[in-house]
Design a protein that fits this description.
Layout (H helix, E strand, L loop, with lengths): L1 E3 L1 H4 L5 H16 L3 E3 L3 E4 L6 E9 L4 E9 L3 H5 L4 E8 L6 E6 L1 H19 L6 E5 L3 H10 L7 E5 L7 H10 L3 E3 L10 E4 L4 E5 L9 E4 L8 E3 L1 H6 L1 E4 L2 H6 L3 H6 L8 E3 H5 L13 E4 L4 H17 L4 E2 L3
Helix pairs in contact: 2-4, 2-11, 4-5, 4-11, 5-6
This protein binds nicotinamide-adenine-dinucleotide.
């Protein structure tokens, strides 16, 4: 088997490669060529951690495996480590033998940012100029950096429960040469694209704080009980997701569905838009919402491409296992 340690990943993967891998795997899922296994995600009762497994099989790409890991909210403050910790394991679908173990931390951030970027590419208005960020933690910086490549954005606005973290967004905006402004939530009405990526368990963004024509990518809600937006927003919007089963159970749509405001059948796969089987955005005043729950196949896709490059470059550690 091959081992690709976390510290080697940054030199082996690009935002473009992550975007391509994620866009392809979303398309394969909608075509029925790839499927995710049910997610296991548990509050383990230690360090407030959420730990679990996300796995799947891509029959077309012959990628089988899982990502094990989760979210340790005290890591940064207590230990100087990032709060997300994960590792990807790939298996040979012909034999079941383990093929690779790959550091999953940077890959998680890149594949999650790629997912919202794919949604912006396919669902946001072409003339989108203002991007709004809700959340300013570790993932938010990756989200913003990737999103800024999707449209000719002229301004970044940001809100965070903990305003002292907003300079994280300012830094990414500065890097891209785009002005940044901290706003109240009402200020999000100015945004053509909004990304939410927080650890919230309550609705932050109200339906009335989103303007017609906006595209929203809700990326933080990946567990039962978590929530970032008003369920009424899902009534107003056309709702898309990576995986419908996850969207209605652990994603942002879980609340609107549980309250009987929308049906599971109101949630469409983004892969169908990519494949041309769903028109996606059809008007300039339509609100589109992408419920990015995070699927195991995203992790496997980016990890498989990293292993390929690591083997080519002679960086992968080979272990007789
Ligand atoms: P982080 O700890 O670095 O940042 C957390 C962010 O959430 C900060 O902006 C913080 O101010 C905000 N926050 C914390 N508690 C809040 C609350 N009660 N209400 C509102 N905001 C609150 O975490 P991160 O690594 O940036 O991850 C953010 C979230 O993204 C996590 O909840 C994580 O589970 C989720 N996530 C989702 C996916 C996916 O594929 N959908 C992938 C990775 C991470």
């Amino acid at each position: 088997m091959y081992i690709v340690p976390e510290k080697a990943i940054a030199d082996l993967v690009t935002r473009e490669a992550s975007f391509d891998a994620v866009e392809k795997v979303f398309a394969a899922m909608a075509a029925g060529d790839a499927y995710n296994f049910p997610v296991v995600r548990e509050a383990i009762g230690h360090e407030d951690a959420l730990y679990g497994f996300k796995g799947g099989f891509d029959c077309a790409g012959l990628t089988l495996g899982l990502k094990a890991g989760g979210y340790w909210p005290n890591n940064l403050e207590k230990r100087g480590l990032i709060n997300h910790q994960s590792t990807v394991f790939l298996f040979d679908p012909d034999t079941g033998k383990v093929k690779a173990m790959v550091g999953g931390n940077l890959l998680t951030a890149l594949r999650t940012a790629a997912a919202s970027s794919v949604s912006i590419k396919h669902l946001a208005r072409q003339d989108a100029k203002v991007i709004g960020m809700i959340g300013a933690g570790h993932q938010a910086t990756f989200q913003l950096r990737a999103a800024l490549e999707q449209r000719s954005f002229e301004k970044v606005i940001g809100w965070n429960l903990h305003p002292e973290m907003l300079p994280n967004l300012q830094e990414v905006a500065d890097e891209a040469g785009v002005p940044f402004e901290a706003v109240e939530l009402d200020g999000m009405r100015e945004a053509d694209v909004i990304i939410s990526i927080t650890s919230s368990f309550d609705a932050i963004l109200k339906a009335g704080q989103v303007s017609p024509g906006a595209h929203i990518a809700c990326m933080g809600t990946d567990t039962k009980g978590k929530q970032e937006v008003d369920p009424q927003l899902l009534v107003k919007a056309d709702v898309f997701t990576d995986e419908v089963a996850q969207s209605v159970s652990i994603g942002e749509a879980q609340h609107a569905v549980a309250q009987g405001l929308i049906e599971e059948s109101d949630v469409a796969q983004i892969g169908a838009v990519i494949n041309g089987n769903n028109p996606g955005r059809t008007s300039d005043d339509q609100i589109t919402l992408f419920d990015g729950t995070g699927v195991g196949l995203q992790d496997l896709a980016v990890a498989a491409s990293v292993v390929e490059v690591a083997v080519e470059k002679g960086i992968a550690i080979e272990v007789d296992f």
